[in-house]
Design brief:
This protein starts with a strand and ends in a 7-residue tail after the last helix. The strands form two sheets. Strands 1-8-7-9-6-10 form a six-stranded mixed sheet. It has a five-stranded mixed sheet with strand order 3-2-4-11-5, with helices on both faces. Helix 1 runs parallel beside helix 3 and helix 3 packs parallel to helix 4. With 273 residues, the chain is an alpha/beta fold. Helix 2 links the parallel strand 2 and strand 3. It has eleven helices and eleven strands. The radius of gyration is 19 Å and the shape is elongated.
Length: 273
């Protein structure tokens, strides 16, 4: 369980990780291989941000029902998935938890075409402590009863970045930083919360409204004016452009289709304008 360093600076340090990933790409990333033309139905491998881990199952099932393809996913934090793609991981598409990391791939020459916003994510408080009363103003987290608060790592996970923004909005970041426990992604953050390794955590609404999580713990929406809804974008990678470009484009388009948007809405994402 990773705790926030006591000397952690404010939001300005978050973009440093983007610079490091771009710089790393110019020195160490191999070119994406082009495979021989596939026989039979297309097979896609998609890198998916952890907050989409439940919604993506329905997205894939709906896509495969109308398009003759097989889709496999790898779940992780947006930052780590970006680094893997830059190093040559054979993912056809990248479904990020923000809009910045797809642009990092474009800057590194590891993505094709324009990124596409497919959803907007929200933050919630989540706890498995039945004695804990949640409040929309997170100042209650200062209570001595609360020893540990799980959030996603703001360096690699966009939901963690917006969590820090929210805490700074209320003037709580400096006061709470010694209580913060960092998950490398929303998935690990959720493990800390659901296992009661922490008293409470801040996570993605898409997780707590998923059918798999129904009735587990209790949660509360956080004030929208305290942070930015997380615009999430997807992009076809260089590998996807060279291997199965038609199927990759079809999946990307499906995310913004009426059927795709209905699924995202069911999982607590804000619709697109």
């Amino acid at each position: 369980m990773e705790s926030l360093p006591s000397n952690a600076p404010s939001m300005k340090w978050l973009n440093l990780s983007l610079f490091i990933i771009i710089l790393f790409s110019f020195f160490s990333c191999p070119s994406s291989p082009k495979e021989p033309p596939s026989k039979g139905k297309p097979k896609l491998s998609i890198a998916v941000a952890a907050n989409v881990q439940f919604a993506i199952k329905e997205i894939i099932a709906a896509f495969e029902s109308g398009y003759d393809a097989e889709v496999a996913v790898v779940i992780g934090s947006s930052g780590k998935l970006t680094a893997q793609i830059i190093q040559g991981a054979p993912y056809h598409l990248f479904i990020s938890a923000d809009t910045k990391y797809p642009e990092v791939l474009k800057e590194a020459g590891k993505a094709s075409g324009e990124s596409m916003i497919y959803a907007k994510g929200a933050l919630v408080l989540w706890t498995f402590d039945e004695t804990l009363d949640l409040a929309r103003n997170p100042s209650f987290l200062l209570n001595d009863k609360i020893k540990k608060i799980a959030i996603a790592n703001p360096v690699t996970a966009p939901y963690g970045e917006e969590t820090v923004r929210l805490l700074e909005y209320y003037g709580l970041y400096e006061k709470l930083k010694n209580k913060l426990v960092l998950g490398e992604s929303i998935a690990q953050t959720n493990q800390y919360i659901s296992s009661a390794a922490v008293e409470v955590g801040i996570t993605a609404k898409s997780v707590v409204v998923a059918p798999e999580m129904a009735g587990k713990g209790k949660w509360l929406d956080l004030e929208r004016s305290a942070y930015n809804l997380i615009e999430q974008a997807a992009i076809i990678t260089e590998y996807g452009h060279l291997n199965e470009p038609e199927a990759s484009k079809a999946f990307l388009d499906f995310l913004r289709s009426k059927a795709g948007q209905q699924i995202f809405s069911q999982y607590g994402y804000e619709g697109l304008e």
